[in-house]
Each structure stands twice: as structure tokens, then as C-alpha cells.
Amino acid sequence: MNRFTHLFVMLSLLFGAFAASAQDSVELTIATVNNPDMIVMEGFTEVFEAANPGITLNWVVLPENELRATVTTDIATGSSTFDVVTIGMFEVPLWAENGWLNSIDALAADHPDSVQADYDFDDLLAGVKLGLSYDGELYSLPFYGESSMMMYNTAMFEAAGLEMPEQPTWDEIRELACALHDPDNGQYGIALRGLPGWGEGMAFLTTVVNTYGGRWFDMDWEPQLDSPEWQEAVSFYVSLINDCGQPGATGTGFTEALTLMAQGQAAMWVDATVAAGFLSNPEQSQIVDTLGFANAPVGPVPKGNHWLWAWSLAIPNTTDHAAEALQFISWATSKDYIQLVGETNGWATIPPGTRTSTYENQAYLDAAAFAPTVLGLMQAADPTDARRDDVPYIGIQFVAIPEFQGIGTDVSQLIAEALAGDISVADALAQANDLTRDAMDEAGYYD
Questions:
Q1: Which residues of 221-240 are buried (b: 16+ CB within 10 A; e: fewer)?
Q2: Where are the domains of the chain?
Q3: Measured between alpha carbons, how far is 285 from 135 in angstroms, rounded to an integer?
Q4: 23-146+309-367 and 148-306+385-442 share one fold
């Protein structure tokens, strides 16, 4: 064999080895929301890839509304763009019923080696696990769970000689917000979601409607958006934000309100309990030492004021890499991952609300004074009893029917127009009621 033949053979062997290695390597494309906890997860990509050779991660990180639209379209059309999707308690049971998701229980039985060692499914909080199940099977793994509560700047309250009630009413919150509102000095009395989207501004507003005695539908599925209860709740919400809240509210979602609160620009914020960890992180927040908590406010009706939600990681049935996807999501939702975040970024910043063991971990309890309160709120939230009057659906901040994703988003657009002053609240709700009934009629609810 001459040296040219030898070189050709060596190059062929090297190319063959490279091709085999490339063929054995699996790239997982993961769709997730641009919330801080998910950004942290993406930051540990190298840790996962080092521990799982042969799997690489490709991230698609989107704002909440864009994520929902993109993932829903992709899953419903069978486009198979994603191997892992970030969805919540609204989507999981509905999508599982449609056959769009892999059963986690079935995958774990078929690929036990793909489940993170010592994963401990029984450690998952019962309410969260139930919300991510369909027909007795688990279809997604919870990345973090949450309720909602009031967060406030104690320094601003003390400077003004004000106190926050343990269980405030919305009337009390308005009075406090307007007393603390000082926009000329960059201080807003309250920050609240106004960004359109069923899971953005509409999720928060639905809890307000609950506490004013409102409901989306009566027992015959007739929409109730033009009722006196909705009129009172939405009018209150619009006037509170416009009189004593942040400017540009129709552009304020969870992440924008979090920024306002963390930078000391807002005196109060009612939103997801997961924000407590971000606001307690000195690398992200300027109010770590002046952060207070209270229950989410109530109106005349003391129920439905705080929600129950979990962002979770699911595996579409269109993926060709279900075993590898299970390997990733069981790592990202495991006790070991929580330990990794706690030891790396501080225990107050771990993904909360998913495991019993989290609330038995003394390091977490010492770092996160809010932890027992959050657990109590999550356990007390009841999606089957969140309204004054009987309803034919479940859900606190959403209606658990497939049509709600479109209906809730369309209604939120009209509410945003009222918030911006483009139409009256009465006109917005009249149009919202009509479009909701049309959508339900088209879906066959009145046949």
C-alpha cells in the first residue's frame, strides 16, 4: 500500500467514524417561554449535555403569547418542529385527549433508563400532578408551579405610613395605590397585567371578575360578559390602572411588571407567586430587603382570587426522539436539578411549587420566607369552586374548554381597547359577549 492509498484509507475511516458519531447524536428542539426560570434552565445546557453525551439541546425561547400560538399551531398541524414543548394546566388535559402528547407514564415504562435516577414521581405535589394528567395518566412533568398573591414594597409603605392588610380587598388596594402613586418621581401605585392574551392580562382579570361575582358562562353555556358583575369588575380594573398604575399598561405582561417591581418603580404587584423567588434574588432585584407579601385581593366574593398553574414540559407525539426527550425533561424537573439551581444561584431562586421535598428542604425554607405561604395558596386554590354561582366548567383563571384559547384572547383585545380609552367598558363587554356566543354557537354548544 503506497502512502496515497494509506492516506485515503485513513481519511475514509475518519469520515466514517465522524458520520457514525453524527448519526448517533440527537438534537432536541425545545420550545419554552422567556420567563426567568426558563432562561436559567437554558443556561445549564452544557451541564446537561456533559452528563448526557449524544444529546444536544436547541432552544426556541419566545414571549408567552407567541409561544402559545407557535406551539399550538405546530402541535395541531402535526408539523413536528419540537421535541419538547412548554405548556400548562390548560393545555395538557385537552391536548392529551386529542392524542397530541406522549403519555409520560407509558414512556417511563417503555424507557426506564431514560428517567432521571431517583426521579420519584410520588414526590410531585398531588394537585399539580392531577392538573397535568388525563384519564389517570401523567402527560407532562411540572417545571414550576404557582398560585398568585400580592407583592409590595415595604419601604414605600413605611415612608407613607401605610400598612398592607393580610387579606386586602380591592377597594383597599385602590386606596393604597393612589396614596403611593407618584409618577413624576417614577413611582407607580400598582403594576398590573394589561397585555392582551388569554394567559396574560385575561388570566389576571378573570380572578378579579371571580371576586366580583362574575363568571364566563352560566350553566347553559350562555356567556355572561355583559353582566353587572363583569361591568363592575372591568370598570374597576380599568380605572385602577389608569388612575394609579403604570403607564402603557396594554404592553405590560408578567415579565414587564416583574421588571417594574424589581427596579423599585411599583409599590404593589398582584401576580404569580413564582415571582417571589426572582424578587428575592439580589442579582435580579433591587428590593430584596423591602419585599412584603399578602393574599391576592378580593372583591365582594372571597373566592377565586388566587389561581393554580404549572408550567410544564411535555413531549409531542410527533417527535422521533421521545426517549431522549424524556431523558431531558426528567432531568429538568428532578430533585437534582432543583439542587443544582439552589447551590448555583441561591436557594430562594429554585423552581418552586412542584415537589413535596422542596418544602421539606431546610435550606430552601431558610432562604425563602415566602415558601410556606406559596404552598398554602397552591393547596387552597380550587379550580372546581372559584366562583359565586355554579358554572359548567373548571378553572380559576381560565375556562378548561378548547375554545377558550381563542375566545379569551379575542376578549382580552377588546378589554385592552377599553384600557387604552379607545372604547367604553360597556361597548367592549357587549362586543365580547357577542363574539363569545358566536364562537360557542359555531362550536356546537347550543345544538
A1: bebbbbbebbbbbbbbbbeb
A2: 23-146+309-367, 148-306+385-442
A3: 42
A4: yes
- Mean pLDDT score, 115-134: 96
Residue 189 clears pLDDT 50, i.e. is over it: yes
Cell of 12: 475514509
- Position 286, amino acid: Q
pLDDT of residue 80: 87
For 23-146+309-367, which CATH class?
Answer: alpha beta
| Residue 33: its H or E element | strand 26-33
Mean pLDDT, residues 323-327 taken together: 98
| Residues 145-174: tens digit of each pLDDT | 999 999 999 999 999 999 999 999 999 999
For residue 51, pLDDT beyond 80: yes
Distance, CA of 130 to CA of 142 (rounded, Å): 11
- Provide CB contacts within 8 A for 377, sequence distance 6+: 147, 148, 149, 273, 295, 306
Listed in sequence order, the residues at least 6 apart from 362 whose beta carbon sits closer than 8 Å to its beta carbon are: none
Using CA atoms, how far residue 278 sits from 51, 189, 299, 344, 362, in Å, is: 27, 20, 28, 14, 19
**E-strand stretches of 154-307:** 268-272, 291-295
State the fold for domain 148-306+385-442: D-Maltodextrin-Binding Protein; domain 2 (3.40.190)
DSSP H helices, 254-387, are 254-262, 275-279, 322-332, 335-345, 362-367, 371-380
311 has which bridge partners? 144
